[in-house]
Amino acid sequence: MSQTLAEIAKKERERRESLKGKKGIVVTNADLAKLKKKPALEIPPAEPEQGTEGQSSEETAPGSPPQAPEPVVPPALAGAPSGSQNEVSLKALQERWEKAKEYVELLTLKMGALWQEFSSLDNPSAREAIRLAIAETFLKLQNAQEEEAKARQELEKLLGQIKKDSVPSLWIR
Question: pTM (2 decimals)?
Fold first, then answer.
């Protein structure tokens, strides 16, 4: 049952007549600035499964890269005199490691998005462009993972050295 142009125009005039007395809502930039930003999707933290031995489901998720344990600054080092060379280099190494971890996470996210886009396309030329982007991102991800591992090793080495230096030279046995 198709409609003629005259019928469609008549319905549109009636719709506009019914809206004449009503006011529309105007949203300004000031209104938008007052809103609190929330994430589009909130995922509750996963509970560890009863059957695993101290491993959470996040650690055993297939396809996810293994997470390295975070080095913890020993309490003995927390009381070290501020401004010491070790403390400055410790903070610098921690920052470097954190940045490297974040970069690896971002590249991993990008890889997932590229693969998803690749699998949803039917156009061969578009798929080829995405495949090239995947290859470039994969190389960047490998380099970033190597840098993250080096930064973590340097941080752990420094923590071990600081811990070793803080031990008194005389041991009682």
Answer: 0.47
- Continuous H helices in 19-120: 29-34, 75-78, 85-120
Over residues 29-50, the pLDDT tens digits come to 888 888 877 766 666 776 666 6
pLDDT in tens, 108-162: 898 888 888 888 888 888 888 888 889 999 999 999 999 999 989 988 888 888 8
Kindly provide the residue ranges of all beta strands, DSSP E only, lying in the chain, ordered along the sequence: none
Instruction: Give DSSP secondary structure letters for 107-168.
Output: HHHHHHHHHHHHHH---HHHHHHHHHHHHHHHHHHHHHHHHHHHHHHHHHHHHHHHHHHHS-
Domain assignment of residue 97, given as a range: 81-167
Asked, for residue 16, whether it belongs to a domain, the answer is no
Assess if residue 35 is contained within a domain. no
On whether the CB atoms of residues 60 and 52 are closer than 8 A, the answer is: yes
State how many domains the chain has. Answer: 1
Helix extents (H) in 46-84: 75-78
